[in-house]
TrEMBL record:
UniProt xrefs under CDD domains: BKR_SDR_c
Organism for this UniProt entry: Candidatus Phycorickettsia trachydisci
Domain Ketoreductase stretches: 7-179
Protein's recorded name: 3-oxoacyl-[acyl-carrier-protein] reductase
Entry EC number(s): 1.1.1.100
Alphabetized Pfam families for the sequence: adh_short_C2
Position of the signal peptide: none
């Protein structure tokens, strides 16, 4: 049985659909949850819904010094869920270098900063769970998202390297690669685009944020202690490896 009593969990991007679901499930299993993001209204709403055992730590992850301080200022940390991400879509031939760097700075570089700071805390206590949220498009690509795909593929390689470095210290680092999940990002698709994408998914539907949260809770638990440097694909069969 999953039990996070007396565990401290930090969830970035907690104001989004997936981050919200992750925070709620970790909290439901007993964790003290730190909600991070940039939309204070949504964070306040979530904190009010959770009630006890939660706090808000607003942070703009494009500021890497602030991202590092976010973790360093915590008294303790057992679970880190790097879920925050941005998109800035354009065909590669039209995409500026600044746009490419902007997405990598938030999705990949900030995640490295958070992972590194978390590892320092976790290694001292010889325990920790880090879950980085990648994406199916980091494996299959997606037209118009060269920057986003690169950032999400980079998370997988980074996680493997860091997982190998800290495995003997009781710290695991894994990824989850969601497919098309009902979220802020899929809300931007029109009905024709949604039906087209659903036709590529054997399950015939988009996933729910809860589907991702369930995988997060498993990787954050004691039951996953021998799983490290791995990616769990949550995509309804869209990509089968």
């Amino acid at each position: 049985m999953i039990n996070f009593k007396n565990k401290i969990a930090l969830v970035t991007g907690a104001s989004g659909s997936i981050g919200r679901a992750c925070a709620k499930l970790l909290h439901a299993h007993g964790a003290h949850v730190i909600l991070s993001g940039t939309n204070l209204n949504k964070l306040d709403d979530l904190a009010n819904e959770l009630g006890t055992r939660c706090e808000i730590k607003a942070c703009d992850l494009s500021d890497h010094a602030a991202a590092e301080k976010l973790v360093e200022d915590l008294d303790d940390l057992d679970i880190l869920v790097c879920n925050a991400g941005i998109t800035e879509d354009s065909l590669s031939i039209k995409m500026s270098v600044d746009s490419f760097k902007k997405v990598l700075d938030v999705n990949l570089v900030a995640s490295f900063v958070l992972n590194k700071a978390a590892v320092k805390k976790m290694m001292r206590k010889r325990y920790g769970r880090i879950i980085n949220i990648s994406s199916v498009v980091g494996f299959i690509g997606n037209p118009g998202q060269a920057n986003y795909c690169a950032s999400k593929a980079g998370l997988v390689g980074m996680s493997k390297a860091m997982a190998a470095e800290v495995a003997t210290r009781g710290v695991t680092i894994n990824c989850i690669a969601p497919g098309f999940i009902e979220s802020n990002m899929t809300d931007k698709l029109n009905d024709q685009q949604k039906e087209y994408m659903k036709g590529k998914i054997p399950a015939g539907r988009f996933g729910e944020p809860q589907d991702v949260a369930n995988a997060v809770a498993f990787l954050a638990s004691e039951q996953s202690s021998y799983i490290n440097g791995h990616t769990i694909h949550v995509n309804g069969g869209m990509l089968m490896l």
